[in-house]
Structure to design on (145 residues):
């Protein structure tokens, strides 16, 4: 089966949309307004709140680098790493509207030396791996140009 006919599916179901402009899926506590990613299902994790009602929300697509580093070692199973393993950058991106920081890989081809604190980033999707029928995608951060 060619790549053009493979079904694109999320590597982790329910964490992001597959839209042209993808969004992370989080929750927001209806009592205190705190946002969570990944989604929280049963209760608010804010220690000052006893709320139990959470609304599913789409989080901001853009934010600013709060911190960053590079990962030079393959992740342990069950995570899937490239063979041979290629180091990659990781960025903690602050979403101003939600007042939260979301960590994630940076797109292939952008290493930590190209990043700086305060740099604007946006959410995108990249292929993690493929099999005969599916292209498994994950969300990553990429610099806004």
């Amino acid at each position: 089966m060619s790549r053009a006919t493979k079904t694109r599916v999320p590597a982790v179901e329910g964490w992001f949309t597959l839209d042209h402009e993808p969004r992370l899926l989080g929750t927001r506590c209806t009592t205190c307004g705190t946002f969570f990613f990944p989604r929280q299902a049963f209760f608010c994790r804010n220690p000052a709140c006893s709320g139990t009602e959470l609304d599913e929300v789409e989080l901001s697509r853009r934010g600013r680098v709060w911190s960053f580093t590079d990962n030079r070692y393959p992740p342990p199973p069950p995570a899937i790493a490239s063979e041979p393993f290629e180091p990659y950058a990781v960025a903690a991106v602050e979403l101003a509207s939600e007042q939260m920081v979301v960590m994630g890989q940076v797109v292939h081809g952008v290493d930590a030396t190209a990043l700086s604190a305060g740099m604007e980033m946006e959410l995108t999707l990249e292929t993690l791996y493929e099999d005969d029928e599916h292209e498994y995608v994950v969300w990553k951060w990429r610099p806004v140009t």
